[in-house]
Amino acid sequence: MHALARLSPEVRQYLLVTGNYWAFTLTDGSLRMLVVLHFHSLGYTPLQIAALFLFYEIFGVVTNLVGGYLGARLGLNRTMNIGLGMQVLALLMLTVPAAWLTVPWVMAAQALSGIAKDLNKMSAKSSIKLLVPDTQQGTLYKWVAILTGSKNALKGVGFFLGGALLAVLGFNGAVLAMAAALALIWLASLVLLKKDLGRAKAKPKFRDMLSKSRAINILSAARLFLFGARDVWFVVALPVYLSSVLGWDFWLVGGFLASWVIGYGVVQSVAPRITGKQSGHVPDGRAAFLWAASLAGLPALIALGLGAGWSAQAVLLGGLLLFGVLFAVNSSLHSYLIVSYAKEDGVSLDVGFYYMSNALGRLIGTLLSGWVFQAHGLEACLWVSSAFVLAAALISIALPRHGMQPTR
C-alpha cells in the first residue's frame, strides 16, 4: 500500500481502471464458457446456444453509441461503475432455479451482460486519454496496448476459469462465486475511482453521439470491416469445422481457441515494440494501411491451401497463428489511433462511436459466419474475410499521417 501511495494520481487511476477492466473481463470470459458448457450438457443444440448470445452482440452496438453520450454527461467513473453493477445483476439472474433458466431468461441476462461489457470497455479506453498528456503519445500507445492486450489474454484465461468453476462448484455455485467477487470490486471502485472522470465541460446533446470527426469516421469504417473479417470465420465456422471435419472434441476446440485468444492478447500488449515505438515512432494512418494490407491476403491463402487438398490441420493451425499475430497488431494499432484522435473534452463520445462500429462489425461477421459457412463452407468464409480486410486497408488510406491534424 505504501508503494501504491507513492505513485502519481494518474498512475493510480490507470491501475484502478485496468483492475476493474481485468476483473470484468475474467467474469465475461468465464460466463460465456459456463453458458456454453452448461446448456450443451442440458441438450441444447449449437444453434440454440448461439441464440443465447444474440442479444449480447446486438446490445453492444447500441450501448457503445449511447454509452459514449452517457459517459460525457455523467462521467466515466459512473459509466464504469454502472457496467460493473449490471454485470453483477446479470450473474445473479443466472442463479435462479434450473426450471427458470428458459431461453428468453438467459437471453435477457446475456443482453444485460452485453450492455455491461461495452459500458466497461468504453469507460476504460476513454479514461486513458484523460490520464496521459497529449505530448506523450508514446506513453499513450503503450498504456492502450497493455490495457487492450491484457484484456484479451484474460478473456482467454476466463474460458479456462469458467470450465474449472463449473467442474468444482457447478453452474449455480460458479455464477454465485463470480457475482460475489465482482461485487467486492464494484464496491471498491465506487469509493476509489476519481469522481467526474471524463465528464464533458459542455453538456453534449443527443445528436452529438454521431462523430463529426472525419478521421474517426474513417477509422470506424475500417474497424467495422477489420472485425467483421475476423468473426466471419472465427466465431461459428472455425469451431464447427474443427469439430465436425477434423473430429476435435469440445474440450480440445475450447482449449485451443482459449489459448489462441491468450496469445493474441500477449501480442497486442507488445504491439508498440513491433510497430517501431522503440525507435521513437508512433503509428499513423500509413501504418494502419500497411498492417491491414499485410493481413489482407492471408485468409485467401488459407482458403487456397484447403482447396488444394493440403493437410487441413496444418494449413489452419499455421494460418491461424500468423493471422493472430497480424490481427493483434492491427487491433492494437487501431485502439491507439482512436484514443489519440478523440478530443479530450467528451472523449467517450468519440470512443463510444468507434466501438459501436467495432460491435457492428462483430455482429455482421457473426451472422455471416453462420450463413456463409452453412451455405458454402469454410473456404467461402475465408474469401469473405480477405475481402473485408482489403476493404479496411483501402479505407485506411484516407487516415491522417504524421504532420497532418485530424480534421473535424
Can you describe what's shown?
The protein is globular. The protein has helices at 2-6, 9-41, 46-52, 54-74, 76-93, 103-131, 137-192, 214-234, 237-244, 250-269, 271-274, 285-296, 298-307, 312-341, 347-376, 378-396. It is mainly alpha-helical and 408 residues long. It contains 16 helices and no strands. The chain is 79% helix and 0% strand. It has a single domain, classed as MFS general substrate transporter like domains (Growth Hormone, Chain: A, Up-down Bundle).
Helical stretch count?
Answer: 16
Based on the structure given, which CATH architecture is correct?
A: Up-down Bundle
| Share of helical residues | over 70%
How many domains, as an integer?
1
What is the radius of gyration? 21 Å
Structural class: mainly alpha
For the terminal residues, how far apart are their CA atoms? 44 Å
**Residue share in β-strands:** under 5%
Low-confidence stretches: none
Give me the CATH fold name: Growth Hormone, Chain: A
Spatial shape: globular
Q: What's the story with the biggest beta sheet?
A: none
What's the name of the CATH homologous superfamily?
MFS general substrate transporter like domains
The overall pLDDT, averaged over residues, is 81
